[in-house]
Amino acid sequence: MAYSEKVIEHYTNPRNVGSFAKSEENVGTGVVGAPECGDVMKLQLKINPENGVIEDAKFKTFGCGSAIASSSYVTELVKGKHIEEAMTIKNTVIVKELNLPPVKIHCSVLAEDAIKAAITDWKSHQAPASTAEPKKAREG
Amino acid sequence: MVKLPIYMDNHATTPVDPRVLDAMLPYFSQKFGNAASRNHSFGWEAEEAVDKARNQIASVINAKSKEIIFTSGATESDNLAIKGVIEFYKDKGNHIITCVTEHKAVLDSCRTLERNGKATVTYLPVDKYGMVDPDAVRAAITDKTVLITLMYANNEIGTIHPVAEIGRIAREKGIVFHCDAVQAVGKIPVDVEHDGIDLLSMSAHKIYGPKGVGAIYVRSKGPRVRITPQMDGGGHERGMRSGTLNVTGIVGLGKACEIAQAEMAEETRRMLNLRNKLQAGIFERLDEVYLNGHPTERLPGNLNLSFAYVEGESLLMGISDIAVSSGSACTSATLEPSYVIRALGVDEELAHSSIRFGLGRFNTEDEVGFVTDRVTKEVKRLREMSPLYEMAREGIDLKSVQWKTE
User: Which of A137, B1, B17, B329 is least crowded, fewest Cβ atoms below 10 Å from its Cβ?
Assistant: First the structure.
């Protein structure tokens, strides 16, 4: 199978690979997929609690080249967006940008899910803002 | 310096050896006769070439030349063997014993017979090395069993089955034993007498011959084995396989067998040296690499490794100037990881992480060095990118994690 130039480009020079330090605040983490399915994406979003804008993003992905490219692209896509806007991002945007063939559409779906999971995770830590509960472990 | 890209996928196919090509060339335009033309020199010339090839092929498996039937390749040979036996011996029984890691040409032939109500099939499991247990074969035999079909050596993991032992069981019980020996012929000693094989499939393009030609060995004596032809026509090949003989291809297959037989000992030494270097080099520089297949009972050119926390297809993409293959789901249309690797009982994610290196006649030590470097570097890069590697480093047991899947 031939890969699109954009997939190869993201795979070769992935953007924003890594994880935020555990001490960083205001980080939402989404882990989607499963090892036995051959795809696991971890997307972390650093979100400003004042205005709900995604200020930074990092990812780590176990998966094929298209999965890596999808998550790399998504980190670029969400930066600077408000979380409500980011929640509306559809996988088709990723498919179009990366020219993913039909057998790789599941990679884009996973990336879309990762955004939603990360934001949901962040929200779950924000809601009881008044109570000074210790933050839950974010992995898993 | 090595020349890129490097071909290290010799279980999939092999380049035609220049000596094989030279032997074939005259039979395209000069000696182009039909081997079945009995009344002129063009036909005689072609027939002579086919006879010579039959001898060369018979010799490499210790058969008699008249026991060699030419086909279009091993897929046809497998179909002919399995369907041909079931049809011919239908009054005697309808039960087949095979194993889960067989090639699709065998498995799907069996499934077709099952679906059409012509056979019942036992698919034996394999152990963690991919080896079938002869006692399990014996235990699976019923009074309806007419065929045991098992491969000599596996195309993905290289495991060599205890063929001679299974051949003895088949002979003792009077059951036909078919062996798909595509990966074994010309690579390791195969002897239809010693191994008790009644039908054997082989292919030219796996042994530095051309694509589109293969053969099936059909035992003629002790006992004589019969198969019903699967193609109607001019009654070529003693009625077992009609169709004008592919003389150029047959000449190529013959020459390929002759070379393989003459050079087997030397080539095996060379393959083992290259493979051991590749294996040692990778294991030295990377942790959590797992060997798939049998540690010793394995084809000399085969090395199948799982690189934990790295998905196979992404690794292939990173080493795109090296041609190897992966058991990863993403390389197949079905999105399922290799059924062979899964049959070993390894964790699913390790099945997704498997890479098959297939060393062959034309690989060099420099290439092995280059591949070792590239693979090591790319695995390290991808592990830095892998959330699983990170979690494992943090001491998280990946099996205890509740994965969010749809």
Answer: B1
